[in-house]
Amino acid sequence: MTDITRRAALRRTGGVAAATLAFPAAGHTKEAGAAGRAQPRAVERVALTDVLLGWQGDGPRAYTVEQIRGKILSLADFGFRADGASDERARLIEAIGAAAALKCPLYFPPTEAPIFIDNSKAGPIFIPDFANWVGTTSVLGGGSRLRFKGPAFTSDSKQPLSTVRIEGITFIGSDTNEVVGGGTGGNHGFELFAPTNNSVFRRVYVQWFNGDAFRIRRHTGPANDRTAAGNCLFEQTFLTSCGGYGFNVEGYITAVWQHPDINSCGRGAFRLAGGQANQTAVTITGLWSENTRPWTSRQPVLIEDYGNGPITFIGANFSGPTNGTDIIRVRGKTGARINLIGCAGFTYRNWIDDRVADRRVPYSYGINYFDPVLTAG
């Protein structure tokens, strides 16, 4: 068993009235009549939600919000067990809540085995506004890893998710290749409602969920706000072997994807739906879309009921199954303006299938490379 508990483990207090803690503190006083000997100074506890109790080298201490705010909390501070089997859902919720209350980053340290989270009964864990989670991911093994039974994370469906940063963490589902290949399910890696305000997802690795790796939707608040993703950046995301889409986005989209690697997701790499010209702008650069497993989609990109907004692919590489059909499929009442610049397609029949009932889809080509020769006849 790998135990990443350390002596500096912090835990939130609760359920006790305000009082004085007679623990050794950073400062000492000299009491008269005590031969000048230093005596522990009592630490006054402020509101319980504003205090953390912890352990340092010489014993327990009390920390106020002022002392902690702006610093970094770590999962190690909450006594996580990284043995791949012990359910650490409660500790993860506690750590996320503490970091949110203190407005500080939450560090996910590397572990030999993934930290196991069982969400199969209680459902996904909520991501708060301003969450700032940082880890050290290696897609080849090791690094900051969490393994989930059931779905992983969601956000408040009634309002946008504001100013989130999640970086360098691996999220692994418990659905095997066989389950993933059987079709999409309800276990999503991330089901997010309108991430906005410069939210960033960088070097995030999502694997083996039977739903979408990222399912991004408009919130259920005011009907006149149909934003699904506003001013968001997805950078170097590696999404593999999920049953649904890599990114399934429904609503108005203003976002940039840089160097996403989407490998063998059952329904494809992207679904972009419900956009509108004056509130939608999608740019996807350096996409690597590989669909070589038996269960993967023959059409990696679906654009559906999108309005007239531009969708630009720059330097994308689509490597398909030997029976690939069309790289981009357009359906519904769609007038999306598709731009392909410096892209490459292998083993597909066409770049775009634009059999749309009400209009043809305008698109433009830069200098692209297309090789359908390897397609099985």
Q: Can you describe this structure?
A:
By secondary structure, the protein is mainly β. Helix content is about 5%, strand content about 40%. The chain is built from 3 helices and 39 strands. An 11-stranded parallel sheet has the order 8-9-12-16-20-23-26-29-32-35-38, covered by helices on one side. It has a 10-stranded parallel sheet with strand order 10-13-17-21-24-27-30-33-36-39, with no helix packed on it. Strand 6 and strand 7 (about 60-65) form a beta hairpin.
Q: How large is the radius of gyration?
A: 25 Å
Mean pLDDT across all amino acids: 76
Beta percentage is 35-45%
Shape: globular
Could you give the count of β-strands?
Answer: 39
Unreliable sequence segments: 1-61, 373-377
Helix content, binned percent: under 10%
Largest sheet: 11 strands, parallel
| Global structural class | mainly beta
| Count of helical regions | 3
- Distance separating the two termini: 53 Å
For the biggest β-sheet, the strand order reads 8-9-12-16-20-23-26-29-32-35-38
